[in-house]
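name: query_chain
kind: protein
chains: 1
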Amino acid sequence: MNNLKGKKIALVYHNSAYGKEPIKTLEVLSAKYGFKFLKYPVNHPGLEQKSTWLKIGRQTKPDFTIIFGWGVMTQTSIKEAKANGYPVSKIIGNWWSGSENDTRPAGSASVGYKAAGFHTIGKEYPLHRGILDKVYAAGKGSGEKSVVGEVLYNRALVQGVIFTEAIRAAHKKYGNIAINGKQLAWGYEHVNLTAARLEELGLGGFMKPLKITCANHEGENNLLIHEWDGNNWINPSKWYKPMYDVTRPMIEASAAAYAKEKGITPRSNCN
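structure:
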């Protein structure tokens, strides 16, 4: 991280609450590591970006650019970056700017583009084979068979696994009943996807182990940075750990301020 001193990092973001999420963190990191932070908001839906990428590609020329995009915005960013001579290999999208829907429409301009993800991409895992052999082969698949293993499909698969494990945990505690919302919430706070459990589910190596608790609803969200080769996303081998020393105090301070503003009393125990 010390290598960032004196460099320029830009954020091209959807001009909404979602898109503005990383700004405070990047401001803190800019002060801590000495890089210059540049901000470029893009109004919805994101089709008008010519002036933004003219500045980036020909004037400010940041060393790296982060995209917090949505919908058509990301593919437009990639096309405009290429048109203005900015290397797409220097762009990293967040998880909502990192699916095949973002790269394929941009054609060859997207080669070398990178994006973050919480899981690998592909359908070579036992669970995927089971879905293809037992669900799609029986004509019961939801959606096109061709999307199995793509980014958004796999993201939904992760959510389905977490949801199912939460129900399983709730049933284990409360019995085989129609559980209510409070009981399901307890189940979510006791999801424990260990490496062994992921193997049992047919997802060994697909994602990092995940443990959700009352005190930590996000677990430990390790990240992968995938790269688009023109046809597919390349799965990297290195996982990146979040900078919890920076982000956790900010999250807790923000949550406390929100609770105070809304008159919410935070839970005092996690039983």
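note: The domain at 2-118+223-240 is CATH 3.40.50.2300 (Rossmann fold).
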